[in-house]
Design a protein that fits this description.
Strand order of the largest sheet: 1-2-3-4-6-8-9-11
CATH class of the largest domain: Mainly Beta
Radius of gyration: 32 Å
CATH architecture of the largest domain: Beta Barrel
Strand content: over 45%
Shape: elongated
Number of strands: 11
CATH topology of the largest domain: Porin
Largest sheet: 8 strands, antiparallel, barrel
Number of domains: 2
């Protein structure tokens, strides 16, 4: 009888020990909040859904020409830009832009409302430094690319031989430096760009590079 009781007590002790260990393991699994960690890396907080960063921006600024002869016949004007940026979170990115500008022009027998207007498209590679501060991206960058612009003069006296009555198509090489800030999907961007411009003929007495220009401005938009 004593041996039977001892065996029964031993079996009960083993059963309680195993049961307690099982409960503890289950509780530990529940505390972990789900399935065990398989070593998967999570993206840092603030990373956009696309992971590499896609941004759409729009804005404007001021623009003028670099050639002295052209500057003498024009004034500082306004510029505008709509931009799509691919890979804002890497060291190398790409952007495509629709750009434009309008400068008041004088000396062509034109009215006070006359403007030299440009519209065009550009593509550029960006070398950038995506620096993180918590959920904020701070990104200085430089860029270089290729563009196509069309020019026209509004309200001009067409009797002036040095100005073309027709529009003009030119090739430009945008070179720029800028700084972009992104926080929780909101993007702001400041930039200075100079555009060596070639094969202009709309101002016949200004030379082929007479429409080389610069602009400085800011943009806002969203990052995805």
């Amino acid at each position: 009888m004593k041996l039977k009781r001892a065996m029964t007590l031993l079996a009960a002790t083993i059963t309680m020990s195993v049961g307690g260990a099982t409960v503890a393991a289950t509780a530990g699994s529940d505390d972990a909040g789900g399935p065990p960690d398989r070593g998967e890396r999570r993206a840092p907080r603030g990373t956009p859904d696309s992971k590499i960063g896609l941004a759409i921006l729009a804005g404007g600024g001021v623009t003028d020409f670099t050639q002295g002869a052209t500057r003498n016949e024009t004034g500082v004007g306004g510029s505008w830009d709509v931009r799509v940026v691919v890979a804002t979170r890497t060291w190398l990115g790409f952007e495509g832009s629709y750009i434009g500008g309008a400068n008041p022009i004088t000396g062509l027998g034109s009215s006070v409302h006359s403007k030299l207007v440009r519209n065009g498209i550009e593509g550029a590679l960006r070398v950038q430094a995506p620096l993180r501060y918590r959920t904020t991206l701070l990104e200085p960058y430089v860029l270089g690319g290729l563009g196509w612009n069309t020019y026209r003069i509004t309200y001009v006296n067409l009797d002036r031989a040095s100005a073309s009555a027709n529009g003009d198509n030119t090739v430009a090489v945008p070179l720029g430096v800028g700084f972009m800030l992104s926080h929780q999907g909101f993007v702001a961007d400041l930039r200075y760009t100079i555009r060596p411009t070639y094969e202009q003929t709309i101002l016949g007495d200004q030379g082929r590079t007479g429409l080389t220009n610069w602009d400085a401005g800011g943009m806002i938009g969203f990052e995805f």
